[in-house]
Amino acid sequence: MSAYHRRRGCSDLLLPCRHPSSSTNSETLLVCLQAWECIYGLTIPYQQHTSRSLYDISSPSFDPLPNQTYLTFLNSPKFLSAIGSPINFTDLPPPLPALRDDPLVAIKELLSQGVRIALLSGDRDYLCNWYSGQSTSLSIAGSFSRYNAFHTTGYAPLLTNKTYTGGSTRQLSNLSFTRVYDAGHFPSHSQPETTFEIFSRIILGSSISTGEKVNLASFATKGTPEADKTGPELLATNVPNARCYIRKVADTCDDESVRAVLRGEGVVINGVWYNSAGDWQLPGQRSDGEAAGEEAAPTSTIMTGIFTTSLSAAKPTSSSGGSSACDNPARGLLMVSVLAGLLLL
């Protein structure tokens, strides 16, 4: 944080990049590029001194999860033709234009209009860690007199279902922040049930902690001042082998694989780069779980609507159990946590 806020640090570089009077001339773009390089540089010491992922500190650096095969599907000629797209799908926008927008400005404007704002962060995420997500929520609340009490509002257990506590939630009226337990950069992947419950409760306008019907005009959670759950050392189990996705080389391929790709070596099968065709296996032949969710059989049941768990009789429980087990540093620009939902009353 000292590197971010020091004189001529990342924060100072962002100011002229985002100033309303700034044009898109080469001088402004250079400042934005310097800001992006500064922000990216903050992750380098972590990457140099650990073999853990920026997105999930319990997983190896080149974490194969979540699965990236959707990139191949979304760029298939059949799909692009079906939606009439003249361009291909890119997972992330170019970093420089994204730097010029301050998401907090838009979020504060929506909150002022009565939109429900829910921020959530996985507590295994390094890049957009939950401490910064918490700070962001306090920054948003500090801009409104009606949310002055947000920083003293207690954290309540987030009751995912009757047997599992999925996180800690601080909520005051339409603004909330949730620390999702045992989740990485993509809580909806790490903890799908918990994330779905949060999303459903936002839609229904209920307590994010319990799912109970409340009067949001005056509602506030009660509990501890800190979301300070502790646990054993975070070590992911049954992690699939790393996979080098050709459409996301920088994030999924190790240095040797990148060099091989640049030399034109190897083969690409279903969007994944392999040293040779012999390294590829049918999903049913894999024993390390790397095919999980990749070749799921279609179902004939069409489900619509919002499905939630009734928790009226639920009590906080030990979080030892659970549901199922910034992509680009520029995305973690202001260390903003994942925005779960913005839904009109």
TrEMBL record:
InterPro entries in alphabetical order: AB_hydrolase_fold, Peptidase_S10
TM regions (residue ranges): none
Record carries keyword Mitochondrion: no
Statement: the UniProt record of this protein carries the keyword Glycoprotein: yes
SUPFAM superfamilies referenced in this protein's UniProt entry, alphabetically: alpha/beta-Hydrolases
Keywords, comma-separated and alphabetical: Carboxypeptidase, Glycoprotein, Hydrolase, Protease
GO molecular function: serine-type carboxypeptidase activity
GO terms (BP aspect): proteolysis
Superkingdom as given in the UniProt entry: Eukaryota
Family per similarity comment: Belongs to the peptidase S10 family.
Protein name: Podospora anserina S mat+ genomic DNA chromosome 4, supercontig 4
